[in-house]
Amino acid sequence: MARYIAKRLANYVVLLFLAVSAVYFLAASTLNARAVYAVRNPPVDPGVLDAMLYRWNLNDKTPILERYLVWLKGVFTHWDWGFTATGAWVNDDVSIKMWVSLRLMLIGTLAGIIVGILVGAWTATRQYKPSDRAFTGFALLIVCTPSFVIGIASQILAINVNRWTGVTIFEFVGEAGRHGSYFGAVFFDRLQHLLLPTLALLLIQAAFLSRIQRNLMLDSLGEDYVRTARAKGLPKSKAVMKHALRTALIPTGTYVAFSLATMFTGAFYTEKVFSFPGLGAYFVDSLMNPNPHGVVAVTAFSGVCVVCGAILSDIAVAILDPRVRLG
User: Fold this and answer.
1) CA-CA distance, 63 to 222, in Å (whole number)?
2) pTM of the model
3) N or C: which end of the chain has fewer CB within 10 A?
4) Angle of the 185-221 helix axis to the 90-125 helix axis, nearest 10
5) In whole angstroms, what is the distance from residue 256 CA to residue 156 CA?
6) What is the DSSP letter of 89?
7) C-beta of residue 91 within 8 angstroms of C-beta of residue 253
8) pLDDT tens, residue by residue, 90-114
9) 234: alpha, beta or left, given left = phi > 0 and alpha = psi -120 to 50?
10) Phi/psi of residue 168, each to 5°?
11) What is the maximum span of the chain, computed from C-alpha positions, in angstroms?
């Protein structure tokens, strides 16, 4: 098993290097850092601007291959992912914003996975009954609605709830806001700002995963080994949990592994809608305000997350399916 994982990991690392290098050439050739200063008033002296861009390895007058080699050497020798056009160190930006994204995504992702699996498995056992049709219709409505629309709709609903109750239950602009001076005020303020986006993420994740789990569960419930277990007198609940659900969780484990691995960068729309300064929002801002080093750093980080997800997927499938371990 360890040898198999090591071999897969070596392949992933090679692919990740090629993908990140391709993104560097694409970002460096299309995102001109000089454009950041084009609207400055008063304008920056051209000589001073060239000197700054040379210092940060962002000058478009330097051949792109030369810039790539300088950047690559910095990454491998000093773990230096470069600078933005305004002189900010990308390492600092990413190291701060990754934890913001984690705080936003962790609870919503984990809760969405658990709720989605449970709801999907439960509705499969009640196929075509009113409860199944109700949950299925609601899940399809959520899945077909763009995530940013769900975010905006949840904000409108939260405003009305705050107005109806006369209490500010939901805060949804930014990671933190004004808070009192009592013990734990900072913690409760951050928790209040996390509540609404977490609920939105939970709803989206659970709706999507419940549809996957329901279909997989229906396939498992129709298999001969489940029918045989029931014919031998095994209670329905045990047949469902011990046989059908475990088999249905094998493909779900792949999706769950990737969901956990991509928590840091999986909420582009949510972070923008709720003004959370996380990695997703940072990536979008790096595209809008030309920051090629930032784009490459977030892409590389996302690639590492995907590699971790692939490894976790292989391990999860091996745990859930004994045939993989025997093979």
Assistant:
1) 62
2) 0.79
3) C
4) 40
5) 30
6) B
7) no
8) 999 999 888 888 888 888 888 888 9
9) beta
10) -80, 85
11) 85
